[in-house]
Every structure is written in C-alpha cells, then in structure tokens.
Design goal:
nine-stranded antiparallel beta sheet, globular, Vanillyl-alcohol Oxidase, Chain A, domain 3, 454 residues, Uridine Diphospho-n-acetylenolpyruvylglucosamine Reductase, domain 2, single chain, Uridine Diphospho-n-acetylenolpyruvylglucosamine Reductase, domain 3, alpha+beta
Length: 454
C-alpha cells in the first residue's frame, strides 16, 4: 500500500464530517483514545479516523470515504478480537458500537440485532420471552464477529454453532452497496458469511432463529489440580457419548494457590432428572471443592467466565483442534497448566458435537463438522510484564498438542502468524471461499482473516 498522506485523510474528513459531525473522531479529539481501546490492551494501533456510525447508510458512506481516500479500512463491532484487527494504523475505523439494537419477534421465533450488538444485548431482548439462540460463553463478545467465524458455545450440541442459526444478514460491500444475504437473497454471500469471517463487507444487521429455553442446568465444578488426570480422562469418556442436550467445557482456571481443574456442564434438555444424572457422573470424577451447578436462566449461566475477561490486561491466544482429549492430549494440557506463566492465564477446552456435527461440511464455509475439541490457550498478563515469557508459554502449549492435533484451528482464535493454519481450517471449502472473496471484495478492503487472499 502507498503511504498515507494528510491529503488522503482530509479527503475522508470532507466526505464524512457533514454526515457524522462530532462522531467522526480524529487523533486530537477528546474521545479518540477511548474509542480506539479494545478488550486487549496490548493492541495500541493508531488509526487516522474513527467513524462512529449509527445506521447502514452511514456505514456505506464510511466505506466509500475510505475507498476514495485510499485509506486502510477496519471494522470494530464487539472489540473482542484479541489480535486487534478492528484497528489499522493510519486507517479508517468503522465503529459499530453505537449500533447495538436487538429486537425479538417471539411469535416468529426470530431476533434481529445490529452489527455492534453484544451477546448481552441479544439476550436482553430474548430472555424475557424464554427464548435463546446459540451464543458463545462470554456475554460481552460481539455477536457479528462470533457468528461469522463460527460460534462455539454451551448450546452447540442441541442447537449448533451460532452461524447455524443465522437466517440472514444485511451487508455493506466494498463498493458501498448494501445487500441482504440469505437463502432467498444472495445465498452465496450467506454461505461465505457463515464461517468466512468479516472478509466480505460490514455486517450491519443479523437475523437469528430462536429456541424455547427458559432455563438451563449449568454451573461450575472445581477440582484440585492433583485430580486433573482423572478428571480429564473421565471427561473424555463421558463427552464421547454425550447426548445433544449436554455440552461440557473443561480445562484450567486460575486459583489462589495455582491452577484449578474445572468442568462446566450445560444441560439444555427438558428432562432435568436426566441432566442431574449426567452431571452426577461428572461430579464423581474427583472431589470438587466448588460445586455450583443448578437450574438458572441461560443469561445467568453465561456470567461464569466474566471474571476472566478483564479489560486493561494484555492477552495472547493460541488454539488447536483435537479429535478428542486423548491421554497424550491430557498429559500435554496438564503439563502446560503446571508451567503456566501468569496467575491470570487459562486453558479452556470446548466440545463440538451433536447438532453442529450433523451439518453437511459444504453447507456453510465452516468446514470442520466432525466431533472434536477446540483448545483455547489464553495467556493473560498485566501491562507491566514483558510479553516474551507469556508468548513462549502459549507457543509451548500448542507445540505439545501438535502431534495429536487436527489440521487447521478455529480462525477466531488464530493470530496474524497463523495464515497457513487458518487456510487449512476451511479444508474443501477453501477454493469456494477464495472465489467469494474475489467476487465480493476483489481489492481486499476487508481483511479480518488475511489468509483469504489468493
């Protein structure tokens, strides 16, 4: 890309100032530094302009302004991308944090959310009706970013990935036009959005299918670290035959005296007695010193991991897909937890199974539809720490898992040095996805997953 000049920035300002007024932020403006902060404080990029949009027309104007001025373009929705792709140095940020409306249609069993909405916003609209859609596990995560790359979560076994519940989306393309992607409107873009990430345009509205689920049986079981081997071995056996209604996460959370082994079950079935029996088997894998499993609203259950997502810390993520938590994988995870580089870091293992695994791999851009585990290596450290030893720890974790890992990994958790692995994650869908990229964004204005460029 050619160097960005003051004249280029002035061109964009002249185009957007009459429309956005004070919502067009420049580096000297009072709210600029706050607006460029994202969840990961390690991201310190300085864009040239931040366009705080309120509707689709303003988003389209910002896309055209960036194109005409030759400025790099990025999109900030929930701001939870750890790698900081929401910001580009010297670029124009389309900030969707003012577009967070969520509207439920209980009779039609759908919900519509704007592109900047978080999971909390979505659930605030659906929970009063006893309705849910598939979400991730953290309420502050943006819905659009989660959905377009996949959307692992506690309801995956029963209702699939978040993207499996997407009914349609409104998208502003790189030429400033707005299209509706869905089975009856641009089905190819709809296919690409479901797994291809934010690489095709700015998603300004999303519509989801809703399901009846007023409560879940869920909670946290914490075991001594010394029992990790037995817990992981038992976990692997139980989840291999688990019904759709039971999705269980495991791994290691920080504790006052070092890492703690955890199991986090979600039972989404109507038969609570069956759920209690399933959780009793998990409880019996060791001697839990914390047992907080009970019936609760789904939105309350998602609060369990909030304490581990703290703004102001530095974050560095790695990820692998495993066919199962085999003895080799379990040993590698336990060894990694024993050598953890920070008292804030976590290892989380999510299960992919059930309804999500019964989708044809070619039906969406998300290709890995065999039952598997996704490992999240989350190195968390204060800004006063140097990154080197935390990076070394995270890299050692995935190196220990590599001998038993599947090709690819969850693109939402991969970083800028993982392009080859990101491409592998799309498997037989890669060529079709690259063709969609050439069709909808031939000049690569949107680069949430850089691997999707020929």
């Amino acid at each position: 890309m050619t160097a960005i000049s003051a004249a280029d920035i002035d061109t964009a300002v002249r185009a957007l100032r009459p429309r956005l007024g004070e919502r067009l932020l420049l580096p000297d403006d009072g709210g600029f530094d706050g607006a460029r902060k994202v969840w990961n404080a390690a991201v310190t990029r300085r864009p040239a302009l931040i366009a705080r949009c309120r509707d689709t027309a303003e988003v389209a104007a910002a896309v055209l302004a960036a194109r005409d001025a030759g400025l790099p373009l990025s999109v900030r929705a929930g701001g939870h991308d750890w790698a900081g792709r929401a910001l580009r140095d010297g670029g124009l940020v389309i900030d969707l944090t003012g577009m967070r409306d969520a509207t439920a249609d209980p009779a039609g069993r759908t919900v519509t959310v704007q592109g900047g909405a978080t999971t909390d916003d979505l659930l605030a609209a659906t929970a009063p009706h006893g309705l849910v859609t598939a979400t991730g596990v953290v309420r502050s995560v943006g819905v659009a970013g989660l959905t377009t790359a996949g959307g692992y979560g506690p309801l995956i076994g029963r209702f699939g990935l978040a993207l499996d519940n997407l009914l349609g989306a409104d998208v502003v393309l790189a030429d400033g036009s707005t299209v509706t992607a869905g089975p009856d409107g641009d089905p190819e873009l709809w296919w690409a959005l479901r797994g291809g990430g934010g690489n095709f345009g700015v998603v300004t509205d999303l519509r989801f299918r809703l399901h009846d689920l007023p409560t879940v049986l869920a909670g946290m079981l914490l075991f001594p670290f010394a029992e990790a081997g037995a817990v992981l071995a038992g976990y692997a056996e139980i989840v291999a035959g688990a019904p759709d209604e039971l999705t269980v996460m495991t791994g290691f959370l920080p504790g006052p005296d070092g890492p703690m082994t955890f199991l986090c079950p979600f039972w989404s079935g109507a038969d609570l007695a069956a759920g209690e029996r399933a959780i009793a088997k998990l409880r019996a894998l060791g001697h839990p010193f914390v047992d907080q499993v009970g019936v609760m609203p789904y939105v309350a259950a998602l609060g369990m991991f909030d304490a581990n997502i703290v703004e102001g810390n530095h974050y560095l993520l790695r990820s692998r897909w495993l066919p199962s938590v085999s003895p080799v994988a379990a040993d590698a995870l336990i060894a990694a937890a024993a050598e953890i580089s920070s008292p804030f870091s976590t290892l989380i293992v999510n299960r992919f199974h059930g309804a999500a695994a019964r989708v044809d791999p070619a039906a969406t851009a998300f290709a890995n539809r065999v039952p598997h585990q996704v490992v999240e290596v989350i190195a968390v450290y204060p800004p006063t720490d140097a990154a080197d030893r935390h990076r070394a720890w995270a890299d050692s974790v995935v190196a220990g898992l590599d001998p038993v890992s599947l090709p690819g990994a969850y693109p939402n958790l991969l970083g800028p040095d993982d392009d080859a692995r990101a491409r592998d994650s799309f498997a037989g869908n890669l060529d079709r996805l690259l063709a969609a990229k050439r069709r909808y964004d031939p000049d690569n204005a949107f680069s949430a997953i850089p691997a999707l460029v020929d």
